[in-house]
Design goal:
There is one protein chain. The protein is an alpha/beta fold. It has three domains: 112 residues, Immunoglobulin-like (Sandwich), CATH 2.60.40; 354 residues, Glycosidases (TIM Barrel, Alpha-Beta Barrel), CATH 3.20.20.80; 97 residues, Oligo-1,6-glucosidase, Domain 2 (Oligo-1,6-glucosidase, domain 2), CATH 3.90.400.10. It is 25% helix and 18% strand. It is built from 18 helices and 29 strands. Strands 18-15-14-6-3-2-20-19 form an eight-stranded parallel β-sheet. Strand 16 and strand 17 form a beta hairpin. Helix 7 runs parallel beside helix 8 and helix 13 runs parallel beside helix 17. It is globular and about 80 Å long. The N terminus and C terminus are likely disordered. The structure holds 1-deoxynojirimycin (NOJ), magnesium ion and calcium ion (CA). The site of calcium ion has 7 residues, from loops. The site of magnesium ion (MG) has 6 residues, from loops.
């Protein structure tokens, strides 16, 4: 007997912003009709809930006031409870900690404050037992000036002469005895990007701090060493890497510029002095097209590693703050695959306090519009380099934004503490350790630059040092609001940010969210909706008033929502409860109120062809 064939029809896609891969997967699944088999599995990373652990501030096991690997291992269950599928650890490698571990002095060993190699192995073992993947932070652009690589390069040890970007200085026409840096390049942390080495009699490049020397990626030996480092950690069980600082990986080649490093053009704004970031336009120091091939080589490397060694996909996720077209090229180009995804920083860079619903929609659709067909989206609300969501935007928006990242298609990335709505801690100038704040700021201005407030210890409970450490003195002060905002309390309270977060993460495992179509629209200046649907299953709709005052929308305005609907989860700012019924008519939303509604499918499922 001929099997009935159904095709999907009448699927309301609204703005029709459907990522190619998503759409095809759905159609393929619907093809087998009602009572259809479950949707095809996705790669673990495609719908992953990635949780960023900042090792210094997660959990201190030995009472030295600094987080460590055994501390992380002891708290991995928290990630499971928070619905995460993978942990990304900010750097855990040997480091003098000038830039909190982003200045690696030995890429093959564990930083002593964090523990030993066995502690790392134990962490990975436990994570895998719990079903969690572990991603490491790979920092290829630079190494600590205390690394053996740098020392050997400075000493011109054979094989290491060109490991870093070295250059002769320029003669100072005004002062014979002075040597000027090779170009006007400015470091990300302010000041010249060139530092004189007395030993070598040349300048070396540092796009970040003076103690972070830039590797020379034109050297095949450097490229090869990077692969050895990745292989080492994959062999130790890492499931992939978050790759740091990619836009700065390469700089202009002097061979193309008459043998010298060309000056970056001046931006022309009078408020910037030559030592300030922003003085120049980084034409020769950022986003060089050659760097992408290196990323594509790394993708090939991890793919080959997986083919040779079996197991799940090893992923590479790239970090870079740059424009949308340069960002998208990290996904791949010209038939070559690149990152599994580049981090999407739109919610950090494009949203400012007081943003409107259209601002938010625009931000979401920007990524989905530019993303290559079949690629996987991702949504990042915060990280260790930026003010926390509650402080940067508004505390009332925490649940709604967590709901947004949960409902959108693709992966979501959560920085530790955002599941509790943690706020920036207060860190005085005296307590400030962030190299960026110390280099770019002074006692009056450091708060403009300091990343320390977002890095204060995690709030496990309301006790001394927030349950982070047995030590009353911690590497950064514990934020004083830990007595109100902490995990223990949020687990006990009937409604809390953490409970909302848990409900959202549980929802993300449903096929409607892993495989469904989506609509993202603004209903008004204040209210945004995201609809996820996958007939014949229930649809899920987020209705979110992002404004500081109430808004009344009409349920008729929400395309593809079949009423009555049931409230699945609400933000804390809502007076509604899970299980409440929403009937057709006007819908009043409080300031910051977010509702996730569950409704039966609007689309009648199939059209029988034969
Ligand atoms: C990006 C990292 O997230 C940041 O913390 C660091 O300072 C720079 N890259 C340099 O490694
Ligand atoms: Mg410790
Ligand atoms: Ca570089």
């Amino acid at each position: 007997m001929m099997k009935s064939v159904y095709i999907a029809f009448g699927v309301v896609v609204g703005a029709a912003m459907v990522a190619g891969g998503v759409a095809w997967a759905i159609i393929a699944w619907r093809g087998s009709g009602p009572g259809a088999p479950p949707p095809p599995p996705r790669g673990w990373w495609e719908t992953a809930d990635l949780y960023q652990i900042y090792p210094r501030s997660f959990k201190d096991s030995d009472g030295d006031g600094v987080g460590d690997l055994p501390g992380i291992t002891s708290k991995l269950e928290h990630l499971v409870e928070a619905g995460a599928g993978a942990a990304w650890l900010s750097p855990v490698f040997q480091s003098p900690m000038v830039d909190a571990g982003y200045d690696v002095s030995d890429f093959y060993s564990i930083h002593e404050e964090y523990g030993k190699m066995e502690d790392f192995e134990q962490l990975v073992r436990r994570a895998h037992e719990l079903g969690l993947k572990v991603l490491l932070d790979f920092v290829p652009n630079h190494a600590s000036t205390e690394s053996q690589y740098f020392k050997d390069s400075e000493d011109r040890v054979e094989g290491f002469e060109d490991f870093f970007v070295w250059a002769d200085g320029l003669h100072d026409p005004e002062n014979e005895s002075n040597i000027l840096p090779p170009s006007n390049w400015v470091s990300q942390f302010g000041g010249s990007a060139w530092q004189w080495s007395e030993k070598r009699g040349q300048f070396y490049l540092h796009q970040f701090s003076v103690q972070q020397a830039d590797f020379n990626f034109r050297s095949p030996a450097v490229r090869d060493e990077m692969l050895q480092i990745m292989r080492f950690w994959l062999d130790k069980g890492a499931d992939g890497f978050r790759i740091d600082g990619l836009p700065y990986l390469m700089e202009a080649n002097p061979a193309d510029h008459g043998g010298r490093y060309p000056d970056d053009p001046l931006c022309g704004r009078k408020e910037f002095g030559p030592n300030q970031l922003g003085y120049t336009v980084p034409l020769y120091t950022k986003d060089l097209i050659e760097l992408y091939d290196i990323v594509y080589d790394w993708r090939e490397f991890v793919d080959n590693y997986q083919r040779e060694n079996g197991g799940d996909t090893r992923v590479i996720l790239t970090e870079g703050y740059t424009n949308i077209s340069m960002t998208m090229q990290y996904y791949g180009y010209g038939g070559r695959l690149g990152a599994h995804f580049p981090f999407n920083f739109g919610f950090i860079t494009d949203l400012t306090r007081g943003f409107s619903a259209p601002d938010l929609v625009y931000c979401v659709l920007k990524w989905l519009t530019y993303m290559p067909r079949g690629a996987v989206a991702n949504w990042v609300l915060g990280n260790h380099d930026n003010s926390r969501v509650a402080s940067r935007l508004r505390p009332a928006l925490v649940d709604g934004l967590n709901a947004l990242t949960a409902l959108l298609p693709g992966a979501s990335v959560t920085y530790q503490g955002e599941e509790l709505g943690m706020r920036d801690g207060r860190v005085s100038w005296r307590q400030t350790v962030d190299v960026e704040a110390c280099s770019r700021g002074n006692e009056q201005t450091y708060q403009l630059y300091s990343r320390d407030p977002a890095r204060t210890p995690f709030h496990w409970d309301g006790g001394p040092s927030a349950g982070f450490s047995s030590n009353a003195s911690t590497w950064l002060p514990v934020a004083s609001d830990h007595r109100e905002i902490n995990l223990e309390r949020q687990k006990k309270e009937p409604r809390s940010h953490f409970k909302v977060f848990q409900a959202l993460k549980a929802l993300r495992k449903r096929p409607t969210l892993t495989h469904g179509d989506y609509i993202v629209e603004a209903l008004s200046d204040k209210t945004l909706v995201v609809v996820r649907h996958l007939a014949p299953l229930d649809s899920f709709t987020l209705v979110f008033n992002v404004a500081g005052s109430s808004d009344t929308v009409h349920t008729d305005w929400i395309r593809s929502l079949k009423l009555p609907a049931t409230v699945y989860v609400t933000s804390l700012s809502s007076k509604r409860n899970a299980g409440d019924v929403i009937s057709p008519g006007p819908l009043e939303l409080q300031a910051g109120e977010a509702l996730v509604l569950q409704a039966s499918s609007l689309v009648s499922y199939g059209h029988k062809l034969s």
